[in-house]
Amino acid sequence: MGNRCLKHEDPIAIVRRAQAGDGAALEELIVLYQERIGGFIYSLLGDPDAIADLCHSVFVKMITGLERLREPASFEPWMFRIARNACNDFLRRKRIRQIFVPFERKHEQIAAPARAERDSRIDAMRRAIAELPARQRELISLLQDREWSYEDLARITRTTVGSVKSRLFRAREFLREKITAEELRDLELQAPRPDLRGASSAQPQE
């Protein structure tokens, strides 16, 4: 991958290089985002066994669709929207399989985290987040990853800014009832920032 340092190069510059046909830049994007995309997928599904396959699917779609992305600055919202769609497809297929596969107790089991979690505060936060409705939970998961604008969150979740604000308000109110103020601070939820890009850009289909 050469002597480039991923931490010091602007991701938008990497996207531009990848769009120009730089194969090394594609590899850099995968390395740069694989942990974040994997964490987002796990936060939505709670199934560590699904992460590898879904990450592979997400990055294949990234590679095949990148040349049609008109604005490199919108790469991150686009990537997370692909990941969200992949999770929705996975859940849809899982529901269909359970209709036709004889019921077994394993269908009720929730996959254990890859590593045992001994910190009771983190356990409490995870349980509280898991109780959120899916649309609120995905917003909380996104805000744990980084600072997004309301507009970015609306693009990723394919809804309106008003719906994003409403869901975040209800999610925070629910979490305040379930966990302590200190635990809520530990979540390090970033307040959505203003969107400085102006009008939304056209995006390729995922």
CATH superfamily of the largest domain: RNA polymerase sigma factor, region 2, helix turn helix motif
- SSE order: HHHHHHHHH
In terms of quaternary structure, the protein is: single chain
**CATH C-level class of the largest domain:** Mainly Alpha
User: Approximately what portion of the residues adopt beta-strand conformation?
Assistant: under 5%
Please, what is the average pLDDT? 77
Envelope shape: globular
What's the architecture of the largest domain in CATH terms?
Answer: Orthogonal Bundle
Integer tally of domains = 2
CATH third-tier fold name of the largest domain: Rna Polymerase Sigma Factor, Chain: A
The low-confidence runs, each spanning 5 or more residues with pLDDT under 50, are 1-6, 99-118, 198-203
Terminus-to-terminus distance: 27 Å
Report what the structure shows.
Helix 2 crosses helix 6 and helix 4 (75-100) runs parallel beside helix 7 (150-157). The protein starts with 10 loop residues before the first helix and ends in a 20-residue tail after the last helix. It has helices spanning 11-19, 23-45, 51-65, 75-100, 120-131, 134-145, 150-157, 161-178, 181-186. It has 206 residues and is mainly α. It folds into 2 domains: 1-113, Rna Polymerase Sigma Factor, Chain: A (Orthogonal Bundle), CATH 1.10.1740; 117-192, Arc Repressor Mutant, subunit A (Orthogonal Bundle), CATH 1.10.10. The chain is built from 9 helices and no strands. Mean pLDDT is 77; it is low at 1-6, 99-118 and 198-203.
